[in-house]
Amino acid sequence: MDRALDGIRVLDLSRVYAAPAGSMILADLGADVIRIESPMGTDSMRDWGPFVNGHSSYYFTANRNKRSITLNLKSHEGLTIFKQLVAKADIVLENFKTGTLKKLGIDFDELKKINNRIILCSVTGFGQTGPMRTEPGFDPVIQAMSGLMDVTGHPDGEPTKVGIPIADILTSKYVAIGILAALRMRDNNGVGQHIDLSLLDVQISSMANIASGYLNTGMESKRLGNQHNNVVPYQVFDCKDQPLMICVGNNHLFRQLCILLDKPEWVSDHRFQTNEKRLEYKDILVPWIAEQMLANTADNWLEKFSQYGIPAGKVNSITQAFNDPQVIARETVGTMLHPVMGEVKLTKSPLRFSGLNIRCDLAPPILGEHTNLFLQEELGLDEGEIAALKKQGVI
């Protein structure tokens, strides 16, 4: 079965998570993604645990289905090789500090002289413009600056970061979306372009209802723990054995909840007849619901909620999540053969197509794993030439 991006080549100069995870999406779709790192190694994520036989499981999360070569871009020979690769590539992805590519002589103006169809995607903390354009930007910094931490956590607690690098993860999706859009535009006009993608921009745009509410009313959202800012009841409740998240998103679902809880009087109570009213009187309604929820186990409630069409789910641990029958049924975990570790397990792409094959065959590569063979096949270098490049520190 064909893959969507067969024939597309990505030269991936990026490190850590946001940009590499974006190129991994392209690799899953069939693109030939070539990771290019310094011979000394430039991706600090390789040093982040937990480790399995000396290899970082963290690194695995953003680098499946890629090949890895080493290349010293600070050397004349390394730059020459890189430019040769650019001539036959479709995309260059990088997340150096703003201005680094220009210093190296491979910014977009130079790259398009080599290949006017090249697409350059630059991922930085703060973008190519603005007073912070040269500052480093890591996910927790972005979560803090964007206001996300200020609205995350319990009302009486401190600002809290999300449990995963959400700004990085969201940015990775925009890496893929932006590149796919640029490829489509290139189909129309025949030329590439430069994509300027900022983690801060992504997280600001992802503030969703928090942002639109503030921009149009001036109201600042506050930390509400596991409650919703604008919908009631829409939060976690303790059951007899473990917590349960329930989402009563409209008046119909609230009526269903009242029937389920055998509280028909709540339906006619003027304080609860609309979401706006329920929000106003949530300090009365929520404790009443909480009292009812303690009467049964989470599984018992889930069965009832399903019967009444009310969205609900247990607050699972990671172990419980990966052993959930629905997660297993969707085959979300795949196995790949690593050259050192043998079989490794990784989450698979969530995309499911009726007529496309999603790639899941190359384990995250060892640093420089494919350098020799790649240079032989792509540039026709022989063993002696490759040995000389190694001796010079070029690869």
From TrEMBL:
Record flagged with keyword Lipoprotein: no
Pfam family, one: CoA_transf_3
Classification via InterPro entries: CoA-transferase_III_domain, CoA-Trfase_fam_III, CoA-Trfase_III_dom3_sf, CoA-Trfase_III_dom_1_sf
Coiled-coil zones: none
GO MF term list: CoA-transferase activity
Superkingdom per UniProt: Bacteria
UniProt entry keywords in alphabetical sequence: Transferase
Protein name, entry field: CoA transferase
Organism: Cytobacillus kochii
